[in-house]
Design a protein that fits this description.
Elements: H1 2-16, H2 20-26, H3 59-62, H4 72-76, H5 84-90, H6 100-110
Helix pairs in contact: 1-6
Amino acid sequence: MKRILAASALVAIAAFATFPAVAATTTTTTTKTVTAKAPAKPAPAKVAATPAKPVVLTFKLIDANHDGKISFEELKKYFPKLTKAEFAKADTDKSGFLNKAELAAFVKSQQPAKTK
């Protein structure tokens, strides 16, 4: 059961992770060269019909130095608006790092409330 909760929490991270760089690389625009005498007008940029696929974050991916715990700096790379106070609140055992359970709880707390 813990594995399922941890896996679903890590998948939920992907819902919160928005990477403009990834989105920019997944959409392409094309322009046609016009050989007419009139000045060529650039083709308007096409908007992707579907959003870019989210990047799935895992504990191993976030844990850049592979020490089995996540520091504030490691998590800040994926949650740029994260504050030290939010990190301290998520660090329930006050170790200065997040373990898998604490990360799962943090991600769950970041999810928007569901409306019916």
